[in-house]
Amino acid sequence: MSYECKVREQPTQPALTIRTRAAVQDLPQVLGKAFGAIAQYLGELGGQSAGPPFAAYHNMDMQDLDIEIGFPVPGKLPGRDDIKVSEIPGGRAATCLYVGPYSDIGPAYNALSQWMKENGHEPTGVAYEMYLDDPDQTPPEELKTQILFPLRTA
What we know:
Layout: E1 6-10, E2 13-22, H1 27-45, E3 54-57, E4 65-72, E5 84-88, E6 91-99, H2 106-118, E7 127-131, E8 144-150
Antiparallel strand pairs: 1-6, 2-4, 2-5, 3-4, 3-7, 6-8, 7-8
């Protein structure tokens, strides 16, 4: 499969997140629980998300992933307990769209990493996945995930 890789400029985006650690095989439950808690809190605040849910991967140790799970929000909202105020950083980012089951996303990461290397782009070390479809409503082979690597400035 081929992936369209590109660099885009993006604004800083406020977010509410839960940061935790998990093994890759536990991600469906961990992500679901965190998304549910944040969505419930947003509902209590009378607010809505400003975009699709996301996960930020601060490392790539598949048995001990350091992940920040959240929703972009329209402005600064207060955190509570495990739910923290955060942001998706603005600036240049390398990105590609992956379509398919979450468990098969590896080749898209490899393609984007290779493309960055070939084009002289250096990632900051954090990888974002924006989940553009609801997995309860969309067949796995049709799920769209935007992969995004913020880039270091020259």
